[in-house]
Amino acid sequence: MQLHNLYLRGFRNYDEAQADFVPGVNLIVGDNANGKTNLLEAISYLSTGHAFRTRKESELIKFGAEFAELEARLFSQEREQELRAVLFSGRRPRQIFLNGVKQKSAAGISGVLTSVLFCPEDLLILKKGAAPRRKLLDSVLCQMRPNYALALGEYSRILEQKAAVLREAVPSMYVLLPDYNERLVQIGAILISYRARFLQSLAECASQFHREFSGDREMLTMQYKTVSNIDDPFAPLEILRQKLSEHMQSHERAERESAQCLSGPHKDDFEAALNGLPMAQFASQGQTRTATISIKLAERELLKRDTDEEPLLLLDDVLSELDAGRQDFVLNHLRSGQVFITCCETDRLTEIGQVIRIENGSVL
Ligand code: ATP
Ligand code: MG
Q1: Which H, E and C letters describe 275-315, residue by residue?
Q2: Given the CA of residue 38, which atom of ligand 1 is nearest to it?
């Protein structure tokens, strides 16, 4: 997979810009607030159909402009392709085109330009509550396994309906709960089974990267945490269903009293540890950054094994806070596939790739 070039018009602080990329490492260099992250955001938008820093599309359109246009030429799925997105400032929905054909939704471009993104906000994945860790599992699994995406969508829909019944707390509505619970148990077992297997591969691969990263000193482990009475998430679905059902029954009263869905894999999490110490409490900033990068590299590796295409690696501000040894490790692992990396100064990096200079919303 390879991105040849990108054309932007009215996107963030870019009036009109065009950039050509090389197959290996592309260094996006410039002073603060000149548009480096904006450029990565544009690439990522064409990859996923949404922006990673905002849910409001209007923020992506240059102040005062009527619309934004993003266009890319790339090689993937064994052919030359073209992606184009047009975003409008009013209520008009955005349009996405693949090879000139308008797509009904972002699903139409899924797999065309896959990417793995590291941005500074990702450092919270291993530090904060469970939600970002669950999101990490879900987003990679959804990309790799369409059946997982379907199951997760269905689970979320039923969970919302159940939550509404509990919230309204009208006893006559409680007759709906057994049916909801039954379906949540069925689908929940599938989610747990997928997550356990995926986390195992991710942990194996990330741990290897992290070990090299730390010069053999640190052992990264990731342990899946699901519904408390499930001690073996690899057990056959039948057993998972039985356990989930038991757990749900034992929480029935608590769910009604608290008016919340307390039982099920929507609360899943994993615990990352270094040499046995939980990272959330004990990891240093550099260790957190290193482990997060290892997870991202593992994510790329698993996607590559799965699809036979190497996703683009988008690294925003990845090198700050790392000591020289760890910086070298990151840079040495950028030798395969196409990489986009933003940074402020170039002295350490110039030998490894093409430098693209950004100044005040222009590509020089
Ligand atoms: P840093 O090195 O600090 O991370 P950066 O080069 O990554 O900087 P960006 O995040 O790309 O900087 O943002 C550059 C500028 O884009 C910001 O000053 C911001 O005000 C501006 N900007 C963001 N959205 C818009 C918009 N819709 N219209 C015009 N300018 C915008
Ligand atoms: Mg930036």
Answers
A1: CCEEHHHHCCHHHHHHHHHHHHHHHHHHHHHHHCCCCEEEE
A2: 11
- pTM (2 decimals)? 0.91
Question: Which atom of ligand 1 lies nearest, measured to the CA of 59?
Answer: 27
Pairing, β 67-76 against β 101-103: unpaired
pLDDT tens by residue, 80-108: 999 999 999 988 999 999 999 999 998 89
Kindly give the interhelix angle for 324-332 and 177-213, rounded to the nearest 10 degrees. Answer: 110
- Is ligand 1 within 6 A of the CB of residue 59? yes
Nearest CA owner, ligand 1 atom 30: 13
Q: Read off the pLDDT of residues 209-243 as tens digits, 9 standing for 90 and up.
A: 999 988 899 999 999 999 999 999 999 999 999 99
- Residue 26, judged by CB atoms within 10 A of its CB (0-12, 13-18, 19+), counts as buried
Query: Could you count the other beta carbons within 10 Å of the beta carbon of residue 116?
Result: 25
- The response to whether residue 87 sits with its C-beta less than 6 Å from ligand 1 reads no
